[in-house]
Amino acid sequence: MNKIRKGDKVVVLAGKDKGKQGVVVARVDAERLLVEGINMVKKHQKPNPMRGQAGGVVHKAMPIHQSNVSLFDPETGKPSRAGVQLVDGKKVRVLKSTGMQLAGS
Questions:
Q1: I need a labelling partner for 23 at 20 to 30 A (CA). Which of 5, 36, 77, 90 fits?
Q2: Mean of the pLDDT values across residues 83-99?
Q3: What is the three-class DSSP state of 68?
Q4: How far apart are CA 38 and CA 62, in angstroms?
Q5: Which pLDDT value is given to residue 105?
Q6: CA angle (25 as vertex; 58, 98 as ends), nearest 5
Q7: What is the dihedral of CA 37, 38, 42, 43, to 10 degrees?
Q8: Burial letters 3-35, b for 16+ CB under 10 A, else e
Q9: Is the whole-model pTM more than 0.85?
Q10: CA–CA separation, 18 and 69 (whole Å)
């Protein structure tokens, strides 16, 4: 079970964007996440008339490793680790700091 999923609000723990918050847009693979507004880079893009793309410098978000982010706890306003508990025979994700269940578990 992935402890961080699409739509979760996360806080960056390490790297150039340390302390920033964002929403997980997608999981790129088993270990990397695409977070909105985090790890932005300038990419030089060639024009592609077949796709209708203009050339130039494009700002885009690059994936970040899941070990460098942590879930945001709205009660404390700080990052928190995620855990798994059995509730009514189903596994649900909970925040370790407050025990609050996460939506979409």
A1: 90
A2: 90
A3: helix
A4: 8
A5: 59
A6: 135
A7: -90
A8: ebbeebebbbeeeebeeebbebeebeeeeebbb
A9: no
A10: 9
pLDDT of residue 99: 86
Is residue 28 within 8 Å of residue 61, measured between CB atoms? no
Return the structure tokens found at 84.
């798994």
Average pLDDT over residues 33-59: 93
The pairing of strands 64-65 and 56-61 is unpaired
Q: Is the pLDDT of residue 1 over 70?
A: no
- pLDDT score recorded for residue 2: 82
Q: Which amino acid, residue 105?
A: S
Q: Can you tell me the mean pLDDT for 36-62?
A: 93
Token pair 């209708």 in the structure block, residue: 52
Structural domains counted in the chain: 1
CATH of the domain at 68: 2.30.30.30
In a domain, 71, yes or no: yes
pLDDT confidence of residue 66: 93
4 domain residue, yes or no: no
